[in-house]
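OP here, attaching both records as promised.
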Amino acid sequence: MAEKTEPEGGESTLTVVLAGSVNLAIAIMKLIAGIVTGSAAMLSEAAHSVADTFTEVLLLTALRTSSKPADRRHPFGYGKERYFWSLLAAVSIFVSGAAFAFYEGFHTIFAGGNEQNHPLLGYIVLAIAFAMESVSWSQAVRQVRAEAAEDRRSMGAYLRDIDDPTVKTVFFEDTAALVGILLAFAGLGLHQLTDDAVYDGIASVLIGTLLAFVAYVLGRTNKGLLVGRQADPRMIRLIGRRLADQPEVDAVVDILTMLTGTDKVLLCARLDFDDSLGASDIEQASVRMHAELHAEFPQLDEVFLEPMPRSDPALRARVLARYGPEIKRELDEP
């Protein structure tokens, strides 16, 4: 299963730059409208857009720093920098967006809100913001849909297992932005119809809840990538079959993979070679398999092939501890 390798300054960068530009313009409009109308939901949406703008800056930093080549201190490269900065982006959504929205919402509900002024201005700003956010959201959806189709997956499955957190972050934050605008519109409208600011406060709390949920999902994703998630299981199975089909290999004893960055995978395969082979035969076979794996799976950044008898008790114990007893039958197969 060969995957694309996105060059620096590719479509992820376009998606992030477009989202950041849109969010900055929207944040200014929402802030002005929030001050004029006195709406807590509108001010929460302004904070939401400010958080999104700051998020895009962090994502651009992630794209830039993660593309640095490997060096002596970082022999596997800087790919995981993308996960680190994306994790900070998730934290920024909660701290500067959700926390402010919760404060404004609860303050309005329990202490009473400001008198509503010029609600028409709020409606106009929200309508313009919705149209602008739709442009950024459409770009994110187009990229996710195209990459999911290329990977032969549904959008949901692709977003769950994607190893590029920048695309996932933009998609989720733009989706949350559209939902947040609808919530602010509802809060503003109900406040005008009932002359009760509590609806405005409830809308602000719901916006905060939405942002907290998005921050949690993105934070959990980047935590898994930072800790060291394995590669796509489909790719692992294909690699296992390719190695098992080699004439010099009696059995694939163990396969270890780890994502070291977007479209970068570290592979360590432990193989039980034919006992009749000499050291030179094993070396030549390893070089050939290494080249074939790189050709078929270009996302393999580093490949390590280790001769290992399948009967080794210490290795068997480690594999069983990692994958569970269901792997025992595969290890025992000739």
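Record two, same layout:
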Amino acid sequence: MSAKRRRASSTNDSSSSKQTKRTKFTLEHAVAPSVSKSGVVLVTGAGDVGQLGLGSDILEKSRFTLVNLEHDIVDVYAGGMHTVCLTREGKVLTFGCNDEGALGRVTSDKEDSEFTAGEVELPDEVIQISAGDSHTAALLKDGRVFTWGTFRDSHGNMGLTPKGNEKFPYEIFHDQVVVKIASGADHLVCLTAKGEIYTCGCAEQGQLGRTTERGSGRTARSGAGVDQLGKLLYPAPISLKPSLRLHFDDVWAGTYATFAKVAGQNNIYVFGLNNYYQIGLKTSQPQFLPKLSKDFSKYKWKFISGGQHHTLALDENGVTYAIGRKEYGRLGLGAESDDAAELTAIPTLKDKKIVSVCCGSATSFSVTETGDLYGWGMGTVGQLGTGEEEDCFVPTLIKSKQLIDRQVFKVSSGGQHTVILAATANNNKGDTT
């Protein structure tokens, strides 16, 4: 009888543990959006809670309208029912719904102050902003991240921390230098200088990438002494096999999903809601742990933006791709198109050099290198800015008196409103026509 072969012990083999140890890694270049160009802010859509920043008398617009601000603005972000602006000086301005603290400032001392822009007090210069349904985040130039507002799940308000909502900027963790942030509806993603990804917030659709389905809810049973709500709300690294030794150099968030690019590669790892194949996996089940998307990994991406049930992606050649649900025309593939289970280039944009794309909940936008804005998808409250309240099934050039002689260079779409940045030679300061 031959001798039994002994199985190597994984606990005693020191060489094995060395092989799976993550190597030291530092991102050489920041991947945060460019804030080198400033412009004026224009808005369209629903403004019933102040998210248009046009005052309490204007509750809806169907074409883009200028917001009078005293600052040069370098970035804008539309949350669910609020808007965030970043000034050239690195200050943050907010307006819109403040019921759960998403504005990060006091609005009770003056009537209707949430309907106009106000500054958020932060300890240093801000270089990036993001926002979800009821939260806002700011990345400071020294790598610190401050957030305010709240996250929500199927049970309602989760709080921003286990203590509850945070109505003023709160530093979420102190031991990491962050180079980029991204917000979904109810989760926040942070990319660190070490190439690691930290997430916090709601995990019910898998968007945190670090819990099993059973452990994704706030009522899940955890080990003795484990604060389950704190486990979700405090930032922690996504769950990766140590043997992969992965580092990342870019990250994007969809409404209920996350996309992470492997450093120095085209590989994209995804996790979150996939009921319409919007994160590029072949199963319609939610993905709770990071998984390589072969479809997304075929291309070199400049930007990825995810809505509720669809995703837009812009490759390095300026080609725009869509994937996911067709309803309301959000894919831009025509009224007779089916849901897209694979990334599909949008035919009507193929001859245009696109430099930026954006998804709202059920809207889509692209910006050309010449500053033209195209929109498609749901238009029920004027959030496309076409002047009508009809859905658009193909990319439609957005025309407006306010856009004459202005070139759009950034766009962000929220629940029912859209905000853009546009510039001329002098930014048309003081122009209110």
